[in-house]
Structures are given as C-alpha cells and as structure tokens.
Amino acid sequence: MTTPDFSIEFFPPKTAEGTEKLRATRAKLAELKPKYFSVTFGAGGTTQQGTLDTVTEIRREGHDAAPHLSCVGGTRESIRTILNEFKANDIRRLVALRGDLPSGYGMGGEFRYANELVEFIRAETGDWFHIEVAAYPEMHPQARSPQDDLNSFVRKMNAGANAAITQYFYNADAYFRFTEEARKAGVTAPIVAGIMPITNSTQLQRFSEMCGAEIPRWIRLKLASYGDDTASIKAFGLDVVTAMCERLLAGGAPGLHFYSLNQAAATTAIWQRLV
Ligand SMILES: Cc1cc2nc3c(=O)[nH]c(=O)nc-3n(C[C@H](O)[C@H](O)[C@H](O)COP(=O)(O)OP(=O)(O)OC[C@H]3O[C@@H](n4cnc5c(N)ncnc54)[C@H](O)[C@@H]3O)c2cc1C
After folding, report:
1. Which ligand 1 atom sits nearest the alpha carbon of residue 39?
2. Which is nearest to 130 in space by CA: 204, 67, 180?
C-alpha cells in the first residue's frame, strides 16, 4: 500500500503543564512522520495566541503545521491582522472555518459562513496559503438538508479552498456517498477523512452530540457493555477504527486526519496497524 497523506490535530494547551504534555505527545507522534500537524482555534479568537504559539513551536521543531482560523464574531480588520501574523511567521497553510460561538453570543461579526472567510483570505493574500475547509459526510447539524449542506460545501470549495477535512464519522458509506456527490458537483480537490479514535465512551458521546456525528447503535451498545473497563473500550475502538480506516483508504480516501485530543497512544496504534 502506498503511504497515504495523514495529518494530526491538536488543541492549544491552556496551562504550562498542558504545554509540556503536548510536547511529549508531539515527540511521539512526530515519529510517525505526518504530513503536518494542525492546531484548533477557539471561536471568537479565544485561543488566538495559544494557536499561534503552538504552531510556531511545532514549526521550530522542523514539522509543518497549520493553524485553524474561525471567522465567527470576527471583523475584516481582526481577520486581516491574524492573517498578517500568520504570514509574518511564514505559515503557509491553514484550516478555514466558521466556528461556533458559545450559546447566547449570537453570531455577530462580519462573516456569516466559511465560504466568505475563504473568499476573504484569497482576496487578501492570493495564493500564499494552502487552505483546508471542513466537510460533513453526515450533514452539518445546522444545515436545512443534506443537499443544502452539499451546496454550501461546493460554494466553499469554489471560493478557493485547496482541500477539505471531514468531521469524524463511524460510517464509511456516509463518506463514500458524500465524496461521490461532491465529485458529481464538480469538486476535484482531496477530501481527507477525519478520524476520531475511540478511547473513552462518555467523552465520545458528548462530542458526538455536539457536532452531529452518529455513533452507530452497535458501537454504542458494545461500548456501554464494557462499562468502566477502559482496556476493552480501547481494544474495541482500535479494531473498529482501524478497520474503517482500511476501508476508507482502499475505497480511495486520499488521506486521514486524526483528531488526537493531544494524546499519542490511540493515533499511533491505529497508524502502526495501517502501514
Ligand atoms: C476539520 C474540522 C476542524 C474544525 N476546527 C475547528 C476549530 O479549530 N475551531 C472551531 O471553533 N471549530 C472547529 N470546527 C467546528 C466548526 O467550526 C463547526 O462545525 C461550525 O459549526 C461550522 O464551521 P464550518 O466552517 O464548517 O461552517 P460553514 O461551512 O460556514 O457551514 C456552517 C453551516 O452553514 C451552512 N452554510 C454554509 N454556507 C452557507 C451559505 N452561504 N448560505 C447558507 N447556509 C450556509 C452550512 O450548510 C452549515 O450548516 C472544525 C470542524 C472540522 C470538521
């Protein structure tokens, strides 16, 4: 098997201890030689400095790294300032998102959707950045319909994105159907599959409810049956997610993007089974 492109996502740590822990995680994950690491961005700019600091540290260590940038609540001026900061640090790739403000904040700002952010980045910075955007094989939770969501995705790609990364899912058919429909709608850019390792069922359930990713019934029931037996949850998760990754790659997925949650073990174990 030719080695697919793969990337690994972190969130910016909030404490000195978290920063140290992430350094250790990164050292382990760097051995897998991912194409790049990405670092999330708190909507409304809440992690702006932490995102930039983490990305610049990763780049100083000799690895490629992409900050995420969410536009919700931002103004043209505030986004321009961030883009200029990225450029000044010689950052050449980013993940462009709308983001979600905490409930009660409304939307605010001068950008409504990610396609407007992508357009703005291209207008301001030309081809400086390689831009990735988000895709939702199981539909974004706020979309009116799957077709509407697909249209929005196509609009976002046509605004100048180079590639997409999907929300995580545990149903490979949703990914295959989504990519096929995107191709039919004229999208030729890579759509990389977002992979969430399974290590903790309570946390997974919480995330999935927030982002609209479905945990299939059989996986839910199996996880529930293990109770607090974390070793069995991890072993089961490793089998299920690795098998899905194998299927995705065999079916033409151009790469995998791991939501590491700043942990090295699960991503490493899956990757080592795949290569
Ligand atoms: C790979 C990945 C990384 C992420 N990283 C982060 C992060 O770092 N920080 C963070 O805060 N969040 C992050 N998220 C979460 C993301 O911000 C949320 O899912 C958010 O709700 C939508 O962002 P988006 O960029 O996909 O939005 P959009 O593409 O703007 O879509 C949002 C909703 O609006 C609809 N829509 C889009 N365009 C239009 C239009 N022109 N007219 C009408 N409707 C439209 C879409 O169908 C969808 O329902 C990430 C998600 C993924 C998949």
Report:
1. 8
2. 67
Minimum mean pLDDT among 87-96, 100-109, 206-215, 220-229: which range? 100-109
Give start and end residues of each alpha helix (H) in 165-256: 172-184, 201-211, 217-225, 230-250
Ligand 1 atom 45 nearest Cα: 152
CA distances from residue 177 to 6, 150, 151, 183, 185 in whole angstroms, order as listed: 21, 11, 15, 10, 12
Q: How crowded is residue 167: how many other Cβ atoms within 10 Å of its Cβ?
A: 21
**Which of 86, 100, 112, 152 has most ligand 1 atoms within 8 Å of CB, for mutation?**
152
Predicted local distance difference test score (pLDDT) of residue 95: 98
Local structure of 76: helix, strand or coil: helix
Minimal-distance CA residue to ligand 1 atom 32:
113
Check if the beta carbon of residue 256 is closer than 8 Å to that of residue 192.
Answer: yes
Which residues are CB-neighbours of 73 under 8 A, at least 6 positions away?
43, 44, 45, 99, 101, 105, 107, 108, 109
| Mean pLDDT, residues 85-97 taken together | 98
Residue nearest to atom 5 of ligand 1 (CA): 40
- Answering whether pTM is above 0.90, one says yes
User: What is the separation of C-alpha 85 from the centre of its chain, rounded to a whole number of angstroms?
Assistant: 22
Alpha-carbon distance 27 to 212, whole Å? 32
Rounded CA-CA distance 57/59 in Å is: 5
Is 145 close to ligand 1, i.e. is its CB under 6 Å away?
no
Task: Kindly state if the Cβ of 113 falls inside 6 Å of ligand 1.
Answer: yes
Tokens at 232, concatenated: 């069995």
DSSP for 162-185, please give it. SEEEEPP-S-HHHHHHHHHHHHHT
